[in-house]
Amino acid sequence: MIAEYGQLALTFALALSVLLAIVPFYGSFSGNQRALLQAKPLAIGLFIFCLLAKLALVHAFLTSDFTVINVATNSSSILPWYYKITASFGSHEGSMLLWILMLSGWTALVAIFSKGLPLLMQGRILGVLGLINIGFIAFSLFMSNPFARSLPFYPVEGMDLNPLLQDFGMIIHPPLLYMGYVGFAVSFAFAIAALIGGKFDSTWARWARPWTLAAWLFLTLGIMFGSWWAYHELGWGGWWFWDPVENASFLPWLVGTALLHSLAVTEKRGTFKSWTVLLALGAFSLSLVGAFLVRSGVLVSVHSFAADPDRGIFLLIFLLLVIGGSLALYASRMNSVRSQARYQLFSREVMLWGNNVFLLTATLVVFLGTLFPLFHKELGLGTISIGEPFFNQMFYYLTIPFALLLGLGPWVRWKQQPVKPLLGPFSLIALASLTLALGTLAAMQSIQANLALLGLLLGAWVGLSALYELYQRLSQFGSVSKGAFKLHASHYGMTIAHIGFAVLVVGVAMTKTYSVERDVRMQINDSISLAGYQFTLLEVYPLQGANFGGEAAEIAVHNSKGQLISQLHAEKRFYQIQRTVMTESAVHARLSRDLYVSLGEALPDNAWALRLYVKPFVRWIWLGGLLMALGALVALLDKRYRRGSSRLTAANKSEAINA
Amino acid sequence: MRKLMFYVPLVLFLTLALFLLSGLFSNPMERESVTTNKPLPAFSLPDLMQPAQRWQPEQLRGETFLLNVWGTWCPTCNAELSYMTELKQQGVKIIGLYYVLPVDPLLGESFDLTMLQADVSNKLQQRGNPYQFNILDADRSLSLDLGVSGAPETFIVDSNGIVREHHIGDINPQVWRNKLAPLYQKWRQQDGSQ
Fold first, then answer.
1. In which domain, by residue range, is B112 found?
2. Number of domains in chain B
């Protein structure tokens, strides 16, 4: 019965989203205040009913109600309760409901936290979000109902959750990722509202900034957790595969990053106006295109949900309405907009323009790399595939100028920057970067011109420049300690995020250069040394879990001096219901390196195949991502985002004086 | 001119949408075979059961047949044995190409023909034997030349030794009825006319 209530709740949610799409728009065009005021309660009601639907589905999973098809195909009675909750969004149907919950959640948040916005703007934004809600709720109800029953013939036991998804990383990865994807719907709605209103002053950009930051924060975390999960769950030590679905999450991230920077220009300088609007439309449009690619079966990917052309058609029509409609609106409204501001060649405007150029080139590279096989085939040119080497090479070439520019950017002032005052600090930073990079390699006893040296140089350049710039900025308040409390949170946020990028670059370059791996055959008490570490297989014993059996191995690791570093516990699990084998690799993580062991097949003569890795600096990759997310969080705490619009202008003025 | 610039994103998106639409109706798993409509690559490989007997493409001419790439290590291949045995009883000529898994001497593995033969006859006794005979592709060279990406895969080869179809995946009643049988019949009918 609960499942039917869930479906009922979702139906109510559909009705509310239709009202939300109609009533405030009616108010905005007729000037009816009462209609505009309905937007907020409608948005909150919409969220409540989506939440009820989601809870009903979770209930069905927790009680193992196998009459619900979705539960029967994705769960089992012996699945631990926390994975039952994961299973509720592990399938296409369930994840769609999660998506809807997030979307309605963002809609409700906008309704609650938009007191400072003019009523008209508020109504339009919520109206646009209502329209988007309609599309997804209707898709869920009519094309992929998570509550569908298989009565009267239902299975007594479920087919269990895909073992790959039975992992802590999978509990948090999809919700974070979806929060990010869907969060860009808010930036999108702000942009559309601005397009409808026809006013592109800096106010819309100021309102849109915190929401874009929040969405970007979630998307960054989601991508990081996905990468970390793949690393320790797939058993082959990779952390990014340029898989179409990963790319589908990376595309909105790249455009979202460009949007964050472009919004700053539009807000502070009133220029880049049409460009910023286009980016806001683009970030969410790419989220939608990504959702389409994953769910329509157009591309081959390890992540894809089962393909169904009907769903694909529905989503494509939705895409045409939302993206096509918004771009048509953009084209018809934008030709009247002109930017007034003037700026010199060497100015922050141009620096941020450069940032956008590189980020969008990267977007284009990923987009074409992902979709080129499809274009190629549909043009009748035959099948091809584009793999890692293409992406790696392109990103290699893009990262170098991007990082150089990133080191420079924060130092450069709006409008115009004289070159001379920067020469001193930058020769210092360049010298320090060179010393730091060579010093690190010297400590590793491996000085050579390789990718690691380049990565260290670029990382040091970006990181040191960010730190020095922060110091410089703080000193302007008189002394660093005085300035520490006066500087805006968003400036700290920027510095942290830029250091995060530096850390990421160092991590990628070092891991790519110095990782070593070996596939070995080991018997009990065999020892193998790899990169100065001694791996000894101590014992292998049978494993008994709730819904899996298998084998576990204990491996002792000693360093070159013979001291015990750690005892690693690697598992090879056999999930009984799905009849699949999964590796649970064992990782000993330190900032400087990971020791990584995965257990392979049993071999004749009581031996086992094992795969050993030593991966220097691999933690830095995720640390960098976490720092970027932390930067966004700190920036969000900036008081200026929460003040009324009148005082915000005053704050801008005082900042202009400080700068 | 400046006005038209703002229509560029819309035009680009609509073009993309066209591609996505046509992509919906084609199967991304489909790969065109590099070997279709070309003669079988040259080879000289031993028979699995009587290694003294060697097979060359010329010996396989004269009648349309199915060349089935398989191995006892492949569960799907084992599953299709019984249906293919039914096909054999209906008069379809099937020749096996036995795909030997790579062995890793580092792991103490070695290639043992006697064990393999025992394994294969055991499996064929259990599940049915659809094959006229099996060609042993010990170093996987013929499979490589044929563009085999995994087992099971099946080729339709006509009486002139030309590969006419490359089917990836198993053969089951549905696949046979809808896809392979019409092709097989078509080439079979031309056997006599040449």
1. 33-192
2. 1
